[in-house]
Amino acid sequence: MAVRPRLRGAALLGAVPFLVYVAIFLIIPTLVVAIGAFTGDGGHGFTLDNVRALGDEYILAAFGRSVLLSALSALFGAVFGALLAYALSTAKPGGLLRRTVTAASGVLAQFGGVTLAFAFLATIGISGFVTVWLQEHAGVDIYANGVWLFELPGLTLVYTYFQIPLMVIVFLPALDGIRPQWREATENLGGTTWQYWTRVAGPLLAPAFLGSALLLFANAFSAYATAAALVSQGNPIIPLQIRGALTSEVVLGQANLGKAMALGMVVVVAVVMTLYSLLQRRTARWLG
């Protein structure tokens, strides 16, 4: 009986580094944001002015563009990533193709920020390799109607680049959970491929697909570095609005407004991740 408390204490001791990490990089920053959002300019007194300012037109517009960007990139990433994951699930388990694509997806899902922005600028930027080649050899100007790479369509394209491999990583386990015996049973009962996907596999995979799409939405909604590297003027999305509030030399005293906007992002991401957790539980119930 005396040994068990010691074992439990040793197990908790092993979790200390993780708990310290979570406290430093998640709990403390969240508390700083939450407190600052309800603190007046100069750090004096409680106020609701910062939260009320979230109703200003330019902030609502930035939130709207962020939601649209996240939804579009999550949709494209989920669809194309799910197709790639399905093709990968039909490959030999443990084979070279599957291991290579999975490893590449793990790398590309984290390939963001300045590096990704530079890659797109060098490829399809105004003076990018592909842009110049198309102009000289095909007479095609992809920017004939404006430089869309630095606007919402361009950000959607760039974000989709790292959303697709992320979808492969998070959706592939659900596809692996589909048992071949279920398809065989459907065929033995006279069912078609369409009936199998719409009545058996589809309903089973739907929670996993929706949960993965929500994860992609949260991933895009909280992304900052890639957009900051691409967009040098203006603040079209909410992370860049926060940057402007914290670093602007033109309009001073907006640091706590930036924290209020960050708190709004925390609330949105918390809601999305709660829904994701619920869908994951339902997925595990059927495919675990």
Automatic annotation (TrEMBL):
Endpoints of the signal sequence: none
Subcellular location: Cell membrane
Domain of life: Bacteria
InterPro entries: MetI-like, MetI-like_sf
Membrane topology field: Multi-pass membrane protein
Keywords, alphabetical: Cell membrane, Membrane, Transmembrane, Transmembrane helix, Transport
Transmembrane segments annotated in the record for this chain: 12-38, 58-86, 107-134, 154-175, 196-218, 260-279
Domain ABC transmembrane type-1 residues, every copy: 63-278
PANTHER family, alphabetized: INNER MEMBRANE ABC TRANSPORTER PERMEASE PROTEIN YDCU-RELATED, INNER MEMBRANE ABC TRANSPORTER PERMEASE PROTEIN YDCU-RELATED-RELATED
Family of the protein in this entry: Belongs to the binding-protein-dependent transport system permease family. CysTW subfamily.
Protein name per the record: ABC transporter permease
Naturally occurring in which organism (per UniProt): Actinoplanes palleronii
Organism ancestry: Bacteria, Bacillati, Actinomycetota, Actinomycetes, Micromonosporales
